[in-house]
Amino acid sequence: MADLPTIVQLLLVAAAAALIAAGTVLSARGRRGTSVFPAVGLGLALAAQLLHSGDRHDWLPLQDNFDALLWLAILVGGVTLYLRHRGTVPKVDLVTGPIVMVLLIAAAVFGRARPHEYKDTLWDWTHRLSTYASPVAFALAASAGVLYLVLRSKLRQKPHGPPDASYGSLERLERLNYTAVTIGFALLTVGLITGVFLVLSRDTTLGSHWFWKPKVLLSFGAYAVYALVLHSPYNPALRGKQTAILSIFGFVLLLGTLAVVQAMR
After folding, report:
1. Where are the domains of the chain?
2. In contact, 90 and 35? CB cutoff 8 Å
3. Which pLDDT belongs to residue 207?
4. The model scores a pTM over 0.90
5. Residue 186 to residue 20: CA distance in whole angstroms
6. Lowest mean pLDDT: which of 6-15, 71-80, 161-170, 174-183?
7. CB–CB of 101/70 below 8 Å?
């Protein structure tokens, strides 16, 4: 049985979510120095993670669902801070901030209400790492897609005005989207292949008709959507706005997959 997160760990996660929310709001208002709040918040989340690992006397990551969702939030938040520091996409936190908050809340809720631990074979580790790493890349792709649509709308409203540098450029956002989807697609491919192998090689909670389960259908649906995004350079009809929308839709499907996984014992 997986160890339940303690009250102290849950309070640290709650404080982390609150700080990231504060940083996102201040960033939306154009305040300076807003990276401090999410940086401290991620530090608190990391502290909760270390305390949880210490309580179960196992420092390997991704050992239970509280652990996995917490690491996912930390990774998305860390990449967001990096992109903001580099100035690549200064406003990316307006999209990734809420995603990190949702992941932190999900870690607290599912880790407390439906705790479960994971197996430790090589195939399980490969499947676990690839399936939990791909959403990090796809979260960035969806964020770039949202910002692309916002900036495109602003430019259409003021075609002769100066571009809003805080959102980056349409070309940079499209390039970030495509790069993130390429990395995420490779990881998701590994995750799906290893997942199918595990289902075929052992008895799982999915049962014999596993290919009709929501988890499987959502995963392959997201895979098909991102395959279309990867073909956008070869099909002008899929570029720009269409690519942004597909990236957002694919990430929504992945979030549905994560929700289904956490709801299952």
Report:
1. 1-118, 119-265
2. no
3. 58
4. no
5. 29
6. 161-170
7. no
What single letter denotes the amino acid at residue 117? Answer: E
Distance CA 106, CA 69 (A): 7
Residue type, 119: K
Task: Determine the pLDDT at residue 116.
Answer: 56
pLDDT band of 256, cuts 50, 70, 90: confident
pLDDT tens track for 192-202: 888 888 777 76
Average pLDDT of every residue of the chain: 83
Say whether pLDDT at 105 is over 70.
yes
Domain 1-118 has CATH 1.20.120: yes
d(Cα 222, Cα 247) in Å, to the nearest integer? 9
User: What does the radius of gyration of the chain's CA atoms come to, in whole angstroms?
Assistant: 19
| Three-class secondary structure assignment of the chain | CCCCCCHHHHHHHHHHHHHHHHHHHHHHCCCCCCCHHHHHHHHHHHHHHHHHHHHHCCCCCCCEHHHHHHHHHHHHHHHHHHHHHHCCCCCCHHHHHHHHHHHHHHHHHHHHHCCCECCCCHHHHHHHHHHHHHHHHHHHHHHHHHHHHHHHHHHHHCCCCCCCHHHCCHHHHHHHHHHHHHHHHHHHHHHHHHHHHHHHHCCCCCCCCHHHCHHHHHHHHHHHHHHHHHCHHHCHHHCCHHHHHHHHHHHHHHHHHHHHHHHCC
Q: State the Cα–Cα distance between residues 53 and 47, nearest whole angstrom.
A: 10
